[in-house]
């Protein structure tokens, strides 16, 4: 069974930085997409960034230039470096794993439990 476990959330002032980590276990195949999503109460879960098996990346416009997604295959760990954080980045952040060319929420079939990020103004 594939499992994802996030860590690194917390509280920070606007303009600050945080790094999220996600350790993956129990998977066998290498051609997958990993991603970060986020959700606030009463809103739909929205994509933040994703990284494909060939290490190509995609960022939503709202975080482009401020967030960096990366992975360390030797540690089975996905990262999200978040810089220049804004109050509107406050959300629960979820790590997700999907098929090789995953793009929408429905393309990801394994999810972590989430990590809270709070940015104060």
- Summed over residues and divided by their number, the pLDDT gives a mean of 95
What is the element string, with H for helices and E for strands?
EEEEEEEEEEE
Rg calc: 13 Å
Weakly predicted, low-confidence segments:
none
Ends distance: 40 Å
* Main sheet makeup: 7 strands, mixed
Spatial shape: globular
Please report the total strand number as a whole number: 11
Q: How much β-strand is present in the residues?
A: over 45%
Helical residues, percent: under 10%
User: With helices defined by DSSP (H or I, 4 residues minimum), what is the helix count?
Assistant: 0
| Class per helix and strand makeup | mainly beta
Could you name the key traits of this structure?
four-stranded antiparallel sheet; mainly beta; 121 residues; globular; single chain
Structure characterization notes:
Helix content is 0%, strand content 52%. The protein has strands spanning 3-7, 10-13, 18-25, 33-39, 46-51, 57-59, 67-72, 77-82, 91-98, 108-111, 115-120. The strands form two sheets. Strands 2, 4, 5, 6, 9, 10 and 11 form a seven-stranded mixed beta sheet that branches. Strands 1-3-8-7 form a four-stranded antiparallel beta sheet, with no helix packed on it. A hairpin with a 5-residue loop joins strand 5 (46-51) and strand 6.
């Amino acid at each position: 069974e594939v499992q994802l476990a996030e860590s690194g959330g917390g509280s920070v002032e606007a303009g600050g930085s945080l790094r999220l980590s996600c350790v993956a276990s129990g998977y066998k195949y290498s051609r997958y997409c990993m991603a970060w999503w986020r959700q606030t109460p009463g809103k739909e879960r929205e994509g933040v960034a994703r990284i494909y098996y060939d290490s190509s990346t995609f960022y939503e416009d709202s975080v482009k230039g401020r967030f960096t997604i990366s992975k360390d295959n030797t540690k089975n760990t996905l990262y999200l470096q978040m810089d220049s954080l804004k109050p509107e980045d406050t959300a629960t952040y979820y790590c997700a794993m999907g098929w090789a060319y995953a793009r929408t929420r429905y393309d990801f079939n394994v999810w972590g439990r989430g990590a809270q990020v709070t940015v104060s103004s």
